[in-house]
């Protein structure tokens, strides 16, 4: 064989290998999740890959980088096949035309009417469905039963209104030794929608209209909730670090054993049981001013980006994640709230505190807005600024007026 013949064969072999590599890459189903979901996504993908011919490649992206990275991918046309994203971003992505319409398939699911109402609502635009629930989180009020006992309070009788929270916080703070009755991350917009807005909802108020087009911050329930927090701040029931906490100490202060009450998520139950068995704790729904309950129903939705090369497999994976076995084995047994209401007992059967979290999530809500990041998540935005100005500054009326104006400016912008 002469040199040119060998070169031709080598070139042909190289092209075949390259074509095979391209085919393998094209056959690989890609799945993007944010860091917050990595603990559940990794075993899920491993289980899928061990039982299915179509293999899924998982990419975990830092929470704060997720939307920017996906936006870049969508602009370039190089999107993942499957996307798990914070449910509050779904209206924005759907409006931008970046998600695949799955309406007919979603309606045909045998368990469609059991799926998280908050997830399904935020994934619905103009009557069309663009995502399904993936993971769930419900916000609750966490309290230290040990401090309740020391303060002479009944540890089995958590507060059911704001006056009781204030009264209990004062008694716990009076224990001294650096103990405080209450805590919240005051410089974190996302934290406040998760743990402060439920007080407003429980009292019959809201921060946005149902269609997400108009601010309702000027309603009395919002002002009353801000004054409730301001009273606890100004009377010394909350530690000074609250004012500048951007979420870094969202749960950490409670883990010291020196905080009586803090708003948090259901994840705290497993965390405390695993890592802080010395803390005797209880949870309860956020109460309204004179009763009622509220919760933020959070978590991630799962969707097929427009341009997915493997949309059929992507949808198979989405529905597999929602199946009885997967929801029970990979979500409920690992302490994650299932996104199907009929599977709640598998989650909470061993701990009544889990049932409180499940019920709070199931009845919870999340604001619908395609401007959510600018309104709420931006720590320099109008929602975070409202809490800063009202709670720490004390001029609640002025803070509400400014925030109402800024909300509506953002909502009316293109």
Automatic annotation (TrEMBL):
Database matches in Pfam families: SBP_bac_1 (PF01547)
One GO term (biological process): maltodextrin transmembrane transport
Presence of keyword Transmembrane: no
Keyword Lipid biosynthesis found: no
An MF annotation (GO) of this entry: maltose binding
Cleaved signal peptide residues: 1-25
Keywords: Signal, Transport
Cellular component per GO, a single term: ATP-binding cassette (ABC) transporter complex, substrate-binding subunit-containing
Sequence similarity: Belongs to the bacterial solute-binding protein 1 family.
PANTHER family linked to this entry: MALTOSE-BINDING PERIPLASMIC PROTEIN (PTHR30061), MALTOSE_MALTODEXTRIN-BINDING PERIPLASMIC PROTEIN (PTHR30061:SF50)
Name of this chain's protein: Multiple sugar-binding protein
């Amino acid at each position: 064989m002469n040199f040119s013949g060998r070169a031709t064969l080598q070139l042909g072999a190289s092209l075949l290998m390259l074509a095979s590599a391209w085919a393998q890459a094209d056959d690989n189903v890609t799945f993007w999740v944010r860091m917050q979901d990595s603990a559940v996504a990794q075993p899920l993908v491993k289980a899928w890959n061990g039982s299915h011919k179509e293999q899924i490649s998982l990419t975990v992206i830092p929470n704060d980088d997720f939307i920017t990275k996906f936006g870049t991918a969508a602009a370039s046309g190089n999107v993942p096949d499957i996307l798990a994203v914070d449910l509050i971003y779904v209206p924005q992505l759907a409006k931008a035309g970046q998600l695949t319409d799955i309406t007919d398939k979603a309606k045909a699911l045998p368990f469609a009417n059991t799926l998280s109402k908050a997830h399904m609502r935020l994934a619905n635009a103009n009557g069309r469905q663009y995502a399904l629930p993936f993971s769930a989180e419900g916000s609750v009020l966490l309290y230290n039963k040990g401090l309740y006992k020391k303060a002479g309070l009944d540890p089995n009788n958590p507060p059911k209104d704001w006056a009781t929270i204030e009264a209990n916080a004062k008694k716990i703070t009076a224990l001294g030794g650096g103990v405080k009755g209450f805590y919240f991350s005051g410089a974190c917009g996302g934290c406040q929608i998760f743990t402060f807005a439920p007080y407003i909802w429980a009292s019959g108020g809201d921060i946005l209209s149902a269609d997400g087009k108009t601010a309702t911050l000027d309603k009395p329930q919002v002002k009353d909730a801000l004054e409730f927090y301001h009273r606890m701040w100004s009377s010394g029931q909350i530690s000074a670090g609250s004012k500048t906490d951007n979420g870094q100490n969202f749960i950490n202060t409670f883990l010291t054993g020196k905080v009586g009450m803090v708003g948090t998520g259901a994840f705290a139950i497993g965390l405390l049981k695993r890592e802080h068995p010395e803390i005797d704790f209880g949870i309860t729904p956020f109460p309204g001013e004179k009763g009622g309950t509220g919760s933020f129903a959070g978590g991630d939705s799962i969707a097929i980006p427009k341009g997915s090369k493997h949309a059929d497999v992507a949808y198979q994976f989405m529905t597999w994640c929602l199946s009885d076995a997967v929801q029970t084995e990979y979500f409920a047994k690992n302490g994650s709230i299932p996104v199907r209401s009929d599977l709640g007992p598998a989650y909470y059967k061993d701990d009544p505190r889990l049932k409180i979290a499940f019920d709070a999530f199931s009845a919870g809500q999340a604001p619908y807005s395609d401007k959510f990041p600018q309104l709420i998540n931006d720590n320099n935005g109008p929602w975070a600024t409202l809490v800063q100005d009202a709670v720490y500054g004390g001029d609640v009326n002025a803070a509400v007026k400014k925030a109402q104006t800024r909300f509506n400016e953002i909502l009316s912008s293109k």
